[in-house]
Write a structure and sequence with these properties.
Elements: E1 2-4, E2 13-21, E3 28-35, E4 41-44, E5 53-58, E6 63-72, E7 79-88, E8 96-104, E9 111-116, E10 131-135, E11 141-147, E12 152-154, E13 160-162, E14 172-178
Antiparallel strand pairs: 1-2, 2-6, 3-5, 3-7, 4-6, 7-8, 9-10, 11-14, 12-13
């Protein structure tokens, strides 16, 4: 089983290619292959991509390639899900169910500063600043670090001195999680 794109992205459709092989020395008749609709997978069907897909007779040691279009639910998390595939046939006692791993990735947290309480700071003045953060991404953000860096020095007279070295100080805060 192969799929494209790899990894799959939530809210998009992937093309799943299944290579089916008859490892028996006798032909297999009335072979069908289907994919179960289980979260986060929804099989998209049309005339050229039915589900189940009727293969027909597979000759001894024969191979065939099948294609399915599978939609990935937009709420799927970044992890590996198992895609259930069923194979049935006239000579088979029952349908054979296998699961194939599909890696889903592409949901990213995007943390933005949406409000700052102080807009103006004067040289030599000490003020408390409150930042309001919002996660506008598609998954929770964990271990967020908000850091305020000033890469220049402002003198008491209001002069600005540019410098390349950023001082380390108590200007960072760690936020556990933002949903």
């Amino acid at each position: 089983v192969n799929y494209d794109p790899n990894p799959a992205v939530p809210g998009t459709t992937i093309k799943v290619l299944i290579q089916l092989e008859n490892i028996d020395s006798t032909p297999q008749k009335d072979i069908t292959v289907s994919i179960e609709d289980t979260y986060p997978f929804i099989v998209k069907t049309d005339e050229s991509n039915p589900n189940p897909n009727f293969v027909g007779t597979m000759q001894a040691y024969g191979k065939t390639l099948l294609q399915f279009n599978v939609y990935i639910d937009p709420t799927a998390e970044n992890k590996t899900y198992n895609l259930p595939i069923l194979v049935g046939g006239k000579n088979l006692e029952s349908k054979v169910k296998t699961s194939h791993p599909i890696l889903i990735s592409g949901k990213e947290p995007i943390v933005k500063i949406i409000n700052v309480t102080e807009e103006k700071l004067l040289p030599g003045e000490e003020k408390e600043i409150t930042f309001t953060l919002q996660n506008v991404g598609t998954s929770p953000a964990h271990q967020v670090v908000l850091e305020m860096i000033e890469d220049r020095t402002i003198t008491p007279a209001g002069g600005i001195i540019e410098r390349e070295i950023t001082p380390l100080g108590a200007s960072a805060i760690k936020v556990g999680s933002i949903n």
